[in-house]
Amino acid sequence: MKEQGELTNQLSVFRAKKGYSQAEVAKRIGVSRQTIISLEKNKYSPSLKLAFELAHLFETGVEDIFQYNLKGEE
Amino acid sequence: MKEQGELTNQLSVFRAKKGYSQAEVAKRIGVSRQTIISLEKNKYSPSLKLAFELAHLFETGVEDIFQYNLKGEE
DNA sequence: TAAATATGTAATATATTTTTGACATTATGT
DNA sequence: ACATAATGTCAAAAATATATTACATATTTA
């Protein structure tokens, strides 16, 4: 899709709060450790399902973990 | 990832509210019309970016358009 | 300081999303 | 009745997300 905004996330912050390792998060959610690493380093935009799973694990909302900053808006 | 929940959405409702056609939504967001059709028919879980774009277009939150129902939770 | 655990990188393979294009059907307007 | 717009289906290709494996480097802890 058209590149319209930038996705950032607070994954490592929420992970630290819970004291989980990346491997532990991966296992709990059922994805690979690489997926968690890549997400924390902002390598790509996850599926909405994965975003919901992470939000659920960290007992918060999708938009608390992930932020979307539209370009060219003020 | 592990199949843990079911994703549903209210896309057609929000689209109707704005009076947009599927093609118009597709064009505004910069994706193909097929993508919108498939999403409305719940064919797959969109990228988080696309979810944010739709939320922005409909001036609402991601979780107002998309719902994630965990299985085996009450 | 040695062992164990956590984080990171890279390459390749597989799965899923998204695009493209062609065509069918239904609804709307003239 | 005809034209046009909206919705839908299908299949194949392209793009992107995720898995897998193997190895490297930090960091923690016994």
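qc> Residues 1, 21-23, 33-34, 37, 41, 47 of chain A lie near DNA strand C (CB under 10 Å from a C1').
qc> done
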